[in-house]
Amino acid sequence: MTGTIDLTGDPNIGVYARVFEDIAIVYPGAPEGFTATLAQELDIEIVSTFIQGSSIIGSLVAGNSRGLVVSGLATDAELSVLSEYRDIFLLEGAMNAAGNVILANDYVAAVHPEMEFDVAEEIGSFLGVPVVRLTLGGIKTVGMAGFATNKGILVHPRANDTEIANLERVVDLPIGLGSVNMGGGLVGTGLLANSKGYVAGSATTGFELGRIEEVFGFLE
Q1: Which of 96, 126, 128, 180 has its CA at 20 to 30 Å from residue 10's CA atom?
Q2: Are 48 and 7 in contact, with CB atoms under 8 Å apart?
Q3: With bands split at pLDDT 50, 70 and 90, how would you rate the model's confidence at 151?
Q4: pTM recorded for the entire structure
Q5: Neighbour order of strands in the sheet with 45-48
Q6: Residue 154 CB contacts under 8 Å (≥ 6 apart), including other chains
Q7: How far, in Å, CA of 144 to CA of 169, rounded?
Q8: Could you tell me the keywords of this UniProt record (predicted)?
């Protein structure tokens, strides 16, 4: 089953959690109804921790089945929790909001176009995937302007042919334009998904849900 949900009235659910194939990282104290829905709809285990003392997990963590890229400002206690599930790469420096600047799945990592070349290559090596530096819809924070699962990639509705072609050169997955929460182009802020299911922000329309289901292969 799939559908829509909010987090204490906020439809921007992708800001506060990060979902993978087997786990979802959610801040401590998140409503039980929210975490229970993620566990059931996406068939994952809930991992409860803050990142750098903050609840905006989706903005501060990226990665795939091989590892997690985490803000370099995360505390030792937070990293201890995460290291039980994945190897960890700390993203240091000014561009440390990993979830904002990295869009990743098990096949590709798209990164902020101004990320240092060496850092981008290290991330690709760590995650075991090719790396491409690009924008989506002209937006440099590709982790918020797109959402990737192992079955497809949903991108900002204003992403152009060149941007999509840059992705298509390195990954063989469906790539489609879409939005969330009544026209929001930052699809990463309003969506949580893996290959088993998805939940979208509560303001997401039926048409938008249809696009999500099409791109991620949930249409029957």
Answers
A1: 96
A2: no
A3: very high
A4: 0.96
A5: 17-19, 23-26, 45-48
A6: 146, 147, 148, 176, 177, 178, 187, 191, 211, 212, 215, 216
A7: 21
A8: Initiation factor, Protein biosynthesis
pLDDT per residue over 91-112, tens digit each?
A: 999 999 999 999 999 999 999 9
Query: For 177-218, where are the alpha helices, taking DSSP H only?
Result: 206-215
Contacts of 151 (CB under 8 A, 6+ apart): 173, 174, 195, 216, 217
Q: What is the DSSP letter of 89?
A: E
- Distance between CA atoms of residues 106 and 61, nearest Å: 15
Output the CA angle 86-91-39, nearest 5 degrees.
40
Q: What is the pLDDT of residues 99-146, one digit of tens each?
A: 999 999 999 999 999 999 999 999 999 999 999 999 999 999 999 999
CA distance 79 to 88: 8
- Amino acid identity, residue 183? G
Phi-psi region of 75 (alpha: psi -120 to 50; beta: other; left: phi over 0): beta
The overall average pLDDT reported for the chain is: 97
Instruction: Return the structure tokens found at 218.
Output: 């949930």
| Integer Cα distance of 95 and 80 in angstroms | 22
- CA 186 – CA 157 distance, rounded (Å): 9
Give the whole-angstrom CA distance, residue 165 versus residue 62. 23
